[in-house]
Write a structure and sequence with these properties.
Blueprint (H helix, E strand, L loop, with lengths): L2 H21 L4 H5 L9 H28 L12 H10 L21 H21 L9 E3 L6 E3 H23 L10
Antiparallel strand pairs: 1-2
Helix pairs in contact: 1-5, 1-6, 3-5, 3-6, 4-6
């Protein structure tokens, strides 16, 4: 298997394995508890990842289909560009600066834990399949428009940034879970 694809799949597996320890076995109250009105709950962190993955999957698949039709194939190695490396570092947890998220990516304040986590697992499987389907493509030459702003990244950069984004929000959810005021049990 292509080492880039394998690396992305390992990162995806790591995120998927991190979630149960952070968001699993919580009451609805715990899942939706917010440390302050300006901060997200564990549920909102998870659902934000769901919304993001759901928005990116068709964009990724379309770019990959077009690239395969155009014969944009390569075996790598694939190097991230300067801006991709900078932005990847910016996305990695812990965040050094807070950023505002567009309304389309902000989750509702009251979420069902089981349904939200089941959706997360389904979307993670879909993203893993999408990553596997990228094998053999020229990950550096294929451009993908960001769903967060007016910039395009390489497919290689997009996968790397999406996975760092997932780590960032799992880290954020873990901070909520370890907050001293986090409810110990449902009332």
């Amino acid at each position: 298997m292509d080492p880039h694809i394998e690396g992305f799949l390992l990162q995806l597996t790591s995120v998927s394995q991190d979630l149960p320890g952070t968001a699993g076995h919580l009451s609805r109250e715990q899942f939706n508890w917010r440390p302050s009105p300006q901060r997200w709950s564990i549920g909102q962190c998870v659902e934000h990842l769901n919304i993001t993955t759901e928005r990116y999957l068709p964009v990724l698949r379309r770019a990959m289909t077009e690239a395969r039709s155009a014969g944009r194939l390569a075996s790598g190695p694939f190097v991230l560009g300067f801006l991709e490396r900078w932005f990847l570092g910016y996305m990695e947890p812990p965040p050094r600066r807070k950023t505002r998220t567009g309304k389309a990516f902000v989750a509702a304040p009251d979420l069902d834990p089981a349904a939200t986590i089941a959706r997360f697992n389904t979307l993670q499987n879909d993203l893993g399949q999408c990553i596997r389907e990228a094998a053999g493509l020229d990950l550096k030459a294929i451009k993908v428009r960001s769903q967060f702003g007016p910039v395009s990244w390489s497919l290689n950069g997009t996968f790397a940034i999406l996975l760092a984004h997932e780590r960032r929000h799992i880290w954020q959810a873990r901070q909520v879970r370890t907050d001293p005021a986090f409810p110990a049990e449902a009332r």
